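Input record, target 12 of the design panel.
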């Protein structure tokens, strides 16, 4: 019984490992479907890969500079001790 469970577990792990080894190829629309029309002002129709690439505004960069050294914190007037009943 234990050997059978172990065998089934190993087969399940092997199936998961093989499922992760998918074939990578160029994206195409589903059969009978077409890509969306070209955006306003653009003459050519973007490819599927171009449509999946997010625009620059969707990938903002960090605007806060990280601290490079230890600094003393300013006094915070809202950092109050907990209220005891």
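The sequence produced for target 12 reads:
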């Amino acid at each position: 019984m234990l050997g059978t469970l172990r065998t089934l577990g190993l087969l399940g792990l092997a199936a998961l490992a093989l499922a992760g080894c998918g074939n990578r190829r160029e994206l195409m629309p589903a059969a009978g479907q077409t890509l969306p029309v070209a955006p306003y002002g653009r003459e050519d129709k973007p490819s599927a890969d171009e449509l999946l690439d997010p625009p620059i505004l969707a990938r903002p960069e960090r605007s806060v500079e990280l601290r490079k050294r230890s600094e003393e914190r300013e006094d915070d007037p809202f950092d109050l001790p907990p209220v005891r009943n």
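The longest helix spans residues 2-19.
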